[in-house]
Every structure is written in structure tokens, then in C-alpha cells.
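Long-time lurker, finally posting.

We've been working with S41 family peptidase (Stutzerimonas stutzeri) and I want a structural starting point before designing mutants. I don't trust myself to interpret raw outputs, so I'm hoping someone here can both generate the C-alpha cells and explain anything notable. Sequence follows.
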Amino acid sequence: MLHLRRFARPSTLALAILLGMQGGAWAQQPPAEAAAVPSSKAPLPLDELRTFAEVLDRIKAAYVEPVDDKTLLENAIKGMLSNLDPHSAYLEPEAFAELQESTSGEFGGLGIEVGMEDGFIKVVSPIDDTPASKAGIEAGDLIVKIDGQPTKGLSMMDAIAKMRGKPGSTISLTLVREGGQPFDVKLTRAVIKVRSVKSQLLEPGYGYLRVTQFQVNSGEEVGKALAKLKKDNGGKKLNGLVLDLRNNPGGVLQAAVEISDHFLTKGLIVYTKGRIANSELRFNADTADASEGVPLVVLINGGSASASEIVAGALQDHKRAVVMGTDSFGKGSVQTVLPLNNDRALKLTTALYYTPKGRSIQAQGIEPDIVVERAKLTREQAAEGFREADLAGHLGNGNGGPDRPTSTQIASDSDRPQDDDYQLGQALNLLKGLNLTRGQ
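Top reply, 14 upvotes:
Generated this for you. Predicted structure of S41 family peptidase:
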């Protein structure tokens, strides 16, 4: 899936910045002269160009079937970009249009963010409440076949094109999970409407804020969610908050900056460095604090990529939050979308981004402060037995309050995600512990 964001800042006139496995942010298109890489006036590689022209001529003359010049030249362009890195690509009109259309967070497909691994298509993360997540597809799954056709050798753009389709149509994916046996999953394509920010109170005083993707309005939505959590808490400041970035593949750079800024009052959030002068950007926090300094735990995992890593890295470097979970994905590169004059575009890696302390996340990721692996919770049957309150004639409690015999059942709230999510439960317990030691 591709994400697009238009924004205009004086320092970003020459860049269309993309963050996330298949997309991110798009700056306002600059004048051609501003976007161009400064030329060193190096002479053209005439020998190599002659070889290219000779190969083109030989293919046209001798290949078993006729091939037109347009096809040969476009394939040559694709080849140039595909051999640079996994995220640079030549966008033909349909792919470029899809990139532009997906800014709103609504698109057709399965709801899977993908990358490449050993020539196979790898699931970076399924998006919440989509056909992919409902079918049980997990981050790390390898897609080895699409509708029975092997994906080995397919480019990422071609694989995405095969998985897209008319809402209501069906598709079969063959997956391999953690080196196991291949298995098939049948899905029905749908119009994916991604709700990027979700929030609720886990318990009185403790909030939960999940960001599934960094979309155009995600920063604003997080601000509203923080205000609503306080309102739901009776207008009182929260005792703790869990910011869940697990399986968040990234998205709009500006949204990542805005969300980080909700929790920081000063200092650097992120900066980028590249060969183009205008690719060197710096983003700083302002003094406003929408979170009111609430104790914060950030959850990450292997599906947390790019813009998610910007937020986690900034909050970690400033010691504003405890980062918990498992290592993040490790995508620390920035892509620039350079529109061409024929409804096509280049998606080109132009910079790396760095956390406030100068850490490059590329191919390493964010290491959590506290490692908590994903685990499945099972509840044991309560042991049979008696308590003092079960005994006939027991003394009452002079401090007041009802007796609590064995038969007392504590009502269970069915809408408590921490009961079935081990990592979330551990994050909540950490916040409670922090408040106990601080005397709150």
C-alpha cells in the first residue's frame, strides 16, 4: 500500500519525502531546477552508452518476437532502479495514480504492507480491521504464491498490482510462516478504510492510544484522542498512557513529527541527511505539551517501521518514554517522489533519517528498553479452598468494606484488551509500578 502526503515547508520545497514500506509523505512538487541533483559536469560514459545502444539494437533485430522501443526503454529504466535498493522504483501511470489516491487512507485491496526478503514478498504488517488481519496474516509471513503463481522474482510493485483488485473479488495467497510448511489463505478484496488512530481507557487513569499508520491527519487525531482520554477520565490528568506502534509500517513524515511533538516540549525530533542540499531537514519540538507529561510506554515490534521508528527513537532518546516490545523493522531511508513529464514518476531513495542522538535506524531498528516477546495468555482454574471469610462466625473487618469469601466473583470487563494481549498487559503493569514508586 502507498501513502501520500502533500505539505509545504520552506525547508522542504525540493523534496517529496516517503516514509514507510510502500510510501509515506509527498512534498509539494518543486520546480525542476530545484529538484535536480547538482551536476558535477562529469563527461557522459560514452562507451557504456554505445554498449547500451548496441544491446537495444541487437534485441530489436534478433529477439524471437518483435519488441517495441517503449517497452525496451521502460524495462531498462526499471532495471536501473530495481538494482539500487528495495525501495527505489519506476512508477508507471497506474502505480503513480495509486500513490496519489491513497493519501486519505482509503484504497482497494487486502490491507497488507509488504517488503522484500530473499526475492520473496514479505509481510511487514497487516493493517487492523482489514481482510488481511481478519484472515490471521501476520508480520513476517512470506507470500510465496499469489493465486497459485510463484512470487519468486516478482518485483514488489508487480506483486502489489496482483494483490490489488476490484472490491468483492477473491484471491488466494500461499504463505510460509517461520520456516514452516506452506499454507493457503483465501481473502476477499475490500475497500480499505484505515482508521489510523484508536483510543480507550484501559482502566480508570490509564489510557491506550494506538496508531495503525501515519496518515495526513494522524497528528491532529492523536491530539483529539489525548483530549478525549482526559475527558473520559473525568477531566483528570491520566496516570499513564500506552502508545501502541506495533505493526505500524509508517506513512507520512509530517504526521510522525506532529505525534512526537505531542509528547515533547523541546529538542530535536528527527533529521535527515542526503546528497541533495534540500534533503537535509531538521524537525524540532515546540513548547506545547498535549500529553501533560503523562508517564508513557511505547510498544513496538518487528512490524514497526520507518515513521514508527522515528517516533519511538525520538521519545527514547529524550527519555520521555519507556520503549517496550521487540526490535523494530529497521527502515531508516527516505524516498523522494519525482514526477516525470508523462504521468510517470521515480520513487528514489535520497536520504537517511536519524534520531535526535544521531542514530541511524537503517537495517538495525530500534531496540526496546525492555524486551517483551509476544505471548499467548492462558488462565488457570482458581484453586479450590477456603478463605477466612468462608468460615462460620468469622470476625468482621474493622476497617469497613464487605467480606470477600471464595465465592466472590470480580466482574470482568469484556472490553479490556490488556487481558488478551501480554505485551499490553506488561506495559500497563509497568505504568502502575512507576506511579506507585512516585507516590501517585
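Before you design anything, note these points.
The longest strand covers residues 345-354.
Residues 195-369 form a domain with the 2-enoyl-CoA Hydratase; Chain A, domain 1 fold (CATH 3.90.226.10).
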